[in-house]
Amino acid sequence: MDINCPVCKQKNINNFRIVSSIYSDRFYRLGTCPDCGHIFLLDPPDKDNLERVYKEIYNYQAHLAIEKEKRWRFRRLKQVLGKLVPLDTEILDIGCGYGDNLKVLKACGYLDLSGIEVNCLAVDSCRDDGINVFKGEFNQWLISGGSKAKNKPACVILSHVLEHVGDLDDFFKGINIFLGRQGRLILLMPNTASTTVRLFGRYWGWWQPPVHLHHFSKASVAELLKAKGFKVDRLFTRGADSLFLLSTILSIFRISPSRRIVSALERIIIRINSAIFRYWLFAGNEELIVFASKI
């Protein structure tokens, strides 16, 4: 099959796997690049079907239910942030959700903060909290003039965003427009080399096709960043959040949500799960953390 790897452009993709998803009642095919190890969705949905999944099924409210856990997890990066990202840095959080990362950064003393988010409720919540958030996609933000450079350091946060991006080449063109010749990236993403991938196989909770189009390892994300003009400053792993556990359980039992509204009972279950398992899961290696800077 003549398919190019989205990261290293290798054409001989011949290692395939079938995975389950909580966002669909079907199985999906993933390909693995023999050179860089990048894993990606072979049959992504068209734009209309993907938009339908995000509008009707993709669950933003589940993330809101664990907002305390999300802020707790991002605070664990405070020491690395302090060493690599000066306080006067202009920080843009793409796919900022309900602004949990930005709230942590503000508490740490960072002042020039903004976000980009597509979900209306999340945007309204951020704005109610005084966070500057653009409603729309990154390319729309660029077109609107958001890419106007400031004479100061800049940093982009992509927290569980890169796996959703369809065209990595086009996306990084925009990133480089914003950052210019200098700047930093902070990436958080699922780690396909984690122990639980081998344990749960096709039912691993962070496969999540068709919304997750890419699946990175240390090798493949380093290869991507090098190709896009970045060098890796820090790269390490840590455990998953508590939603990963629920996603894995739902995937094993082939339970797919038919709506994106979380009931009061479901919210209680999600929060209890978070309170019990956040510390246990944190000891794993399901999440990749990358701090990178322009070469």
Description:
The chain has 295 residues and is α/β, with parallel strands linked by helices. The chain has one domain (15-294): 3-Layer(aba) Sandwich (Rossmann fold), CATH 3.40.50.150. It contains 12 helices and 11 strands. The protein has a 7-stranded mixed sheet, with helices on both faces. Strands 1-2-3-9 form a 4-stranded antiparallel sheet, with no helix packed on it. Strand 7 (154-159), helix 8 (168-179) and strand 8 form a beta-alpha-beta unit. Helix 3 crosses helix 5 and helix 11 packs across helix 12 (264-282). The longest helix has 19 residues, at 264-282. The two termini are 35 Å apart. 41% of the residues are buried.
Quick structural overview:
The protein is of the alpha/beta class and 295 residues long. Helix content is 39%, strand content 20%.
Question: Topology, please?
Answer:
Layout: E1 15-19, E2 28-32, E3 39-41, H1 47-56, H2 60-65, H3 67-75, H4 78-84, E4 90-94, H5 100-107, E5 113-117, H6 120-128, E6 133-135, H7 138-146, E7 154-159, H8 168-179, E8 184-190, H9 195-200, E9 214-215, H10 218-227, E10 230-238, H11 242-252, H12 264-282, E11 287-294
Parallel strand pairs: 4-5, 4-7, 5-6, 7-8
Antiparallel strand pairs: 1-2, 2-3, 3-9, 8-11, 10-11
Helix pairs in contact: 3-5, 11-12
